[in-house]
Design brief:
heterodimer, A: alpha/beta, five-stranded parallel beta sheet, 4 helices, 5 strands, 21% strand, globular, B: alpha/beta, two-stranded antiparallel sheet, 7 strands
Chain lengths: 119, 98
């Protein structure tokens, strides 16, 4: 088994790239791989709690909680979140807050890295 | 270097791929990138398929767009998310997203 670190710099909840990121992370974790997920830029919206789960509308909170239960480490860029009006008490419990060095450290200790750039 | 490239759009990707060099190159078509595996523009398949590479297309993203395996060029292998994870760990040591 290996370690995959995904850095997602794009997209709000409901977008193609963020949906892809969540599904890839889940599949890798289900196969027994260690997965780290770094959220930056608009992707930090994923970490906002109390997301309304509307029918036929993509949601980020439920899959994020599932990933956390599977042992996926999720961390979001603190500055990016604060810049978008998200305070730490508003974040999903279990999602870490940190700076870019968290992502860099995970990259160096990972077997594979997928960096999904901003839009 | 064995390089796996996620191609997530139909436009503006050919020139970027032209600049990539790898000992082994894999193009994984996802999101709107699946049209590289299915569309014929003016009767011609995507020029990306003329590259010296292995080609893959994500089945879920085909289905989302109303496409089936029958729509896919014979040079492209249809894969699942599970297959993509295996490609990442077994076939391509470096990954790119365009």
């Amino acid at each position: 088994m290996g370690t995959l670190t995904i850095g997602c710099f794009s997209s709000l909840v409901g977008s193609k790239s963020l949906d892809f990121t969540l599904k890839l992370a889940k599949t890798a974790a289900d196969k027994g791989h260690k997965v780290n997920l770094w959220l930056s830029g608009n992707a930090t919206i994923l970490g906002k709690n109390h997301q309304k789960h509307l029918k036929d509308y993509s949601t980020g909170e439920k899959p994020a909680l599932e990933l956390l239960e599977k042992g996926v480490e999720i961390c979001e860029c603190e500055a990016c979140a604060l810049a978008r009006g998200i305070q730490k008490p508003d974040s999903i419990p279990g999602i870490q807050w940190n700076a870019m060095h968290w992502y860099l450290a995970k990259i160096y200790s990972s077997d594979r890295v997928l960096h999904i750039g901003g839009e | 270097m064995k390089l796996g490239v996620f191609v997530n759009d139909y436009k503006g990707t050919v020139e970027t791929v032209d600049r990539l060099e790898a000992e082994k190159l894999g193009l994984i078509f996802i999101q709107n990138g699946v049209f590289h595996a299915t569309l014929k523009d003016n009767g011609k398949p995507s020029p990306l398929l003329d590259k010296s590479a292995n080609f893959y297309v994500l089945s879920e993203d085909l289905a989302t767009r109303g496409l089936t395996n029958a729509d896919v060029d014979s040079r492209v292998k249809v894969v699942t998310y599970g297959d993509v994870v295996d490609l990442i760990f077994n076939d391509y040591e470096k990954l790119a997203w365009i």
